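Quick one: co-fold with iron/sulfur cluster.
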Amino acid sequence: MRRNLNHATTTIREKRARAVGELDDWEQLRLSGAAIKDEVGRHLDRYLEQFEAAFTAAGGHVHWARDAEEANRIVVDLVRATGETEVVKVKSMVTVECALNEALAEAGVSALETDLAELIVQLADDLPSHILVPAIHRSRDEIREIFLANMPAVRGDLTDEPADLAGSARSYLRERFMKAKVGISGANFMIAETGTLVVVESEGNGRMCLTLPETLISVVGIEKILPTWSDLEVFMQLLPRSSTAERMNPYTTMWTGAHAGDGPKDVHVVLLDNGRTRALADPVGRQALRCIRCSACLNSCPVYERVGGVAYGSVYPGPIGAILNPLLNGVANGPVEQSLPFASSLCGRCFEVCPVRIDIPDVLVHLRGKVVDEAHHGVPGPEELGMRAAGWFLAGPRRLAASQRALGIVSRVTGRRTMLGSIPIPGPAARWTGARDIPAPPRESFRQWWKRTRNGSREGRTP
Ligand code: SF4
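Sure, here it is.
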């Protein structure tokens, strides 16, 4: 797994750096992207209602979902109303976040993933390990084995050549696309001004799902809104270069409501909160809602490269997952949310590559503080009590001098020893003190030594 990950992330990192290096105004684009998303955060209610009005006026239907359960219920009801038992899906992280496929399966509806990497994960009954390339941890040979074992009507002489593997997936999927009556997607962006949804992708499977079925249902996080059509221009430059290291996406599909004789007749969008307003209420953490899911932070992260996406134990892996999951669900939600903010070396590479300038290390440190506060329920722990006591002594020269004199008395008892060894003090700090050599207090402090040897002379005051 590490070999596969290392090869894939190194290649995409280098390609991304070249693609980004072609633009002289990359930093200005990043600043613009961050500013547009921050504007959205400040007036989210207004932009969402503007989108709803425009999308509805164009013949679409808008549904609001507070959480994953409500979103799943809406989608299941809409699919049931069509009488269909199979739907085709465009890769969408938000539907993984809601566990929509599982909810559909419970309702007797099978959801077919049509993105190649997502299809590999689905056929292998595996977990996605990357936002953009969910099967990044699989080698070509492993994919061949998965297809041979699980893909109906696959050729027995299938090789592990990428073109051969893609060809098999294409024949398998093409038939399903032609029969599908219901398509399910997410969206990369929603434009408030015009009521338009935007999906960018590389394989053309999205275009098939978004245009061929009669019914189209899109589940979209409320933070995906952009105020105006011209704001999209900034993100159409930031996203492809940061994600697939391309100058533009091979396929960009945009639709505004429903149009007779052109694409799906029955068009729905489910606007999902599911913790996003909770994240928005956090003054430091809200910047995570700028995320455009490009994966550049995953591809640059030394921790992700070694452990892979599944190890994060959450839907969103990598550096963005380490902040997004605790922000969406709250740090009190469980052990995953409590441990994720610590799954980082804070090296800062994620911030350097993020196209919307999310300061992930800063948010991680902020969330670590929240985890510690949560663990102590507002009551200070031993470490904090110790730090407060040290702060009190260090804040006043007289108090500091008095404490140094007291330590000097201890040093008379310990004699010439420089180390006291480990002192297993009972209580919560026992493991810490029991595993460390405690140094003996010095016989005199630096100030006492300074006074004794320099005697307050001018020479003595020269640093
Ligand atoms: S945090 Fe930034 S780099 Fe990471 S996926 Fe989101 S937009 Fe991309």
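If it helps, The mean pLDDT is 92.
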